[in-house]
Automatic annotation (TrEMBL), chain A:
Keywords, alphabetical: Antibiotic resistance, Cell membrane, Membrane, Transmembrane, Transmembrane helix, Transport
Highest taxon listed in the record's lineage: Bacteria
InterPro entries, per the entry: ABC-2_transporter (IPR052902), ABC2_TM (IPR013525), ABC2_TM_bact-type (IPR047817), ABC_2_transport (IPR000412)
Family membership: Belongs to the ABC-2 integral membrane protein family.
Main location: membrane
Pfam families the record matches: ABC2_membrane
The protein's name: Transport permease protein
Source organism (scientific name): Streptomyces hydrogenans
Length: 253, 295
């Protein structure tokens, strides 16, 4: 009698297949992996962005935009690229077809989460390297703190995307909801005005949003400290709530 | 091999399946025939363990497809209606991926060759024709080397040529000893392929028999026809035992009825010493039998 678990190689095969498919989506690859760096470069080419500002404690606007571009990569991966893929897999019966095999369709969703997380992190690394090489933006002062904040932010970003997908019945709705949520997240991530450059009251409110808290945590680690407990608590809170929503509300068909 | 007993499944108020029972023997091609919305797909989804029945018993090789889903997926290959693959996945990659799900998969190169897919291994799913997609789905249903397969509306949307090729394929699957549960609403397909057929209408089994048996049990199983100028009166034809109807069509007189009608008709010719010119006695089609059984 066959054993009751699928071969471990099946999970790897699903991941490898999804990675191939991911590589065949040039638009998604561009938006997730390249566009954050392009955003940084365009802003960096504006001379005033590279001038130290007393309002920012002697830092330059471009210094603040490196974490912003990092968060932009997370938004693109979690909110723009991933939800339509997951919703499409559900809508077109791809998850259902896999339900009739010894491999659970959750393997497909896991592969998508891993790939989008990986793409976002590579993109973040590219932003940091280009920021350092092209505009002399200092590397994060507390690398460990920065990495921890980045991983936590990535988890929250994917949880948000998964929750959008879970709450949307169709691929069209998932894309529409993703876009509707996109603008507030862009704002709270500081894409238009970096969170650190916002008026104090606005900044304090924004820092309770998932991307606002992530922005604060990354900024604190970039300056050499540890992410503050409040920022970490807010990020953990959102990651847990959004994951719970995604898990409880996700429908397989 | 597959047993379904008093299966019931409702979606809200609507009873999709309302007490369906049948059993499929090993090595059999068993057809589920019925109009759209009759409950065919829900029934086979319960067999595949993709839906949980409200009540009743479903067994595949003695296993519960829901509680023992993992083990059933290793024995039962499935081709589902309205289920696709990733658009940019190639045929070769799909076969490789699905083969990796099973401990002892079928040889995927041999399978691709048998299904006429070797020339399309590098083609993406989204670029395949309807017939090629169906052949790929059959290949994926067979790739785990299953003991039974469920094929749901296999030939829908195929041209006549592809349809016939697919039928040959189903027969060759059975020749390998695989039990086939075939869902269809195409009469010709059921008549050609199935050893036995369950006719399902409004969630119930209205008849379960061989194709010939289904035809034989209708009130209009036999069709007698001959040239209209033969010296036989409509009234005496109507009086034949079991005669269901007498009509004139295309210059011929057509009498429908049972075996008893045919016997009595032959006696009538002998007694009257007349000839019915151009006489033809045929079985009714499964089409007519089906309409009779589902109306």
């Amino acid at each position: 009698m066959a054993s009751t678990t699928a071969p471990v190689s099946a999970t790897r095969a699903v991941l490898r297949t999804e990675a191939r498919l991911f590589a065949r989506e040039p638009a998604a690859l561009f938006w997730v992996m390249v566009s954050p760096t392009v955003l940084l470069v365009i802003l960096g080419l504006v001379p005033s962005m590279r001038e130290a500002s007393p309002d920012l404690g002697g830092r330059r606007v471009i210094d603040l935009y490196v974490p912003v571009a990092v968060l932009f990569a997370l938004i693109m991966a979690g909110l723009q690229a991933m939800p339509p893929v997951l919703a499409g897999y559900r809508e077109r019966g791809i998850l259902r077809r896999m339900s009739a095999t010894p491999v659970r369709p959750a393997a497909l969703l896991t592969a998508q989460l891993v790939l989008h997380a990986g793409a976002a992190l590579v993109s973040a690394l590219l932003v940091i390297v280009v920021g350092r090489a092209a505009f002399g933006v200092a590397l994060p002062g507390n690398l460990l703190g920065y990495a921890a904040a980045l991983l936590l932010a990535t988890g929250g970003a994917l949880a948000l995307g998964a929750a959008v997908c879970a709450l949307s019945r169709t691929q069209k709705v998932a894309t529409a909801v993703g876009t509707a949520v996109f603008f507030p997240t862009m704002f709270t991530a500081g894409v238009w005005v970096p969170v650190q450059a916002m008026p104090d009251t606005l900044r304090r409110i924004v820092e309770f949003a998932p991307y606002g808290a992530a922005s604060r945590a990354l900024d604190e680690a970039a300056r050499g400290g540890w992410p503050s407990a409040v920022a970490v608590a807010v990020m953990v809170f959102w990651a847990v709530v959004l994951t719970a929503v995604a898990v409880r509300r996700f429908r397989w068909e | 091999m597959i047993e379904v007993r008093d299966l019931r499944k409702a979606y809200g108020e609507r009873k999709a399946v309302d007490g369906v029972s049948f059993s499929v023997d090993e090595g059999e091609i068993f057809g589920i025939l019925g109009p759209n919305g009759a409950g065919k797909t829900t029934t086979v989804e319960c067999v595949a363990g993709l839906r949980t029945a409200d009540s009743g018993v479903v067994r595949v090789a003695g296993l519960d497809p829901v509680a023992e889903h993992d083990r059933v997926t290793r024995l039962l290959g499935v081709q589902l209606q309205q289920s696709e693959l990733q658009a940019k996945l190639t045929v070769g990659e799909a076969l490789e991926l699905y083969a990796s799900f099973y401990e002892r998969p079928a040889d995927r190169h041999a399978l691709a060759a048998r299904l006429g897919l070797e020339a399309h291994l590098g083609v993406r799913f989204g670029k395949l024709s309807g017939g090629q997609k169906q052949r790929l789905f059959i290949a994926l249903a067979l790739i785990g080397d299953p003991r039974a397969v469920v094929l749901d509306e296999l030939t829908t949307g195929l041209d006549p040529r592809a349809r016939r090729d697919t039928w040959d394929l189903v027969e060759s699957i059975r020749a390998d000893g695989v039990t086939v549960l075939l869902v269809t609403h195409v009469m010709e397909e059921a008549q050609r392929l199935c050893d036995r057929i369950a006719v399902i209408d409004r969630g119930r089994v209205t008849a379960l028999d061989t194709p010939a048996g289904l035809i034989g049990r209708t009130a209009t199983a036999r069709v007698i026809s001959f040239a209209a100028d033969s010296p036989l009166e409509t009234a005496e034809l109507r009086a034949l035992p079991g005669a269901a109807d007498v009509v004139a069509r295309d210059g011929r007189t057509v009498v429908t009825g049972t075996d008893a009608t045919v016997d009595a008709f032959v006696s009538l010719l002998a007694r009257r010493a007349v000839t019915a010119r151009g006489l033809r006695i045929t079985d009714t089609t499964l089409d007519d039998a089906y309409l009779d059984l589902t109306s």
